[in-house]
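Lab notebook, page 48
Experiment: co-folding of the full assembly
Goal: obtain a model of how the components sit together before planning crosslinking
Operator: M.T.
Materials (sequences as entered):
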Amino acid sequence: DAKTTQPNSMESNEEEPVHLPCNHSTISGTDYIHWYRQLPSQGPEYVIHGLTSNVNNRMASLAIAEDRKSSTLILHRATLRDAAVYYCILREGGYQKVTFGIGTKLQVIP
Amino acid sequence: KAGVTQTPRYLIKTRGQQVTLSCSPISGHRSVSWYQQTPGQGLQFLFEYFSETQRNKGNFPGRFSGRQFSNSRSEMNVSTLELGDSALYLCASRLAGGSSYNEQFFGPGTRLTVL
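Observation: model returned without errors.
Model output:
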């Protein structure tokens, strides 16, 4: 299974943009890049996903490198509610041993 | 539409006992996955069920097992509990497994403490 590498923690000031990086150098051509986040005392929730092109939704943007070996989750204006652990995972459409790992703990400073 | 529900929310057991956790997926979702979350290991995949069949399994010992019923509800069982099994057990459902991509929706988890 392809693996992802993320920094253990990051800090951001409130109302500033946040760029959360993810490396996935062994990604296959059919792997989708997914981002989930886990707020304190909750289960993870879906944020965004993409395959090759950059993606935008109401929560965030996903920038995917041209060679697909890395991606960046962009929160355009961090709020205190965005303080969470962010997970970058790879997944095909089928059945896989999906592992979320440790993720990046984002701290938002007022 | 109701979300993924898990019961019980909290559980305390002693070493050597067994435990059964339950998960009810979102209505219409046919795939259920289970994860174990611990502070040091993050979320680790246990198994995924679709149409009452286990489709994939993570690297856990045989003490961890599961099943899925015809209504898509799922249970996981851990036998001969060990202290290291203390964790948050998360269930996630999605519309379908197989070749269709779809996002997972997680429940709140069951917090298991083994004494």
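Interpretation: The longest strand of chain B covers residues 42-50.
Next step: discuss with group before ordering constructs.
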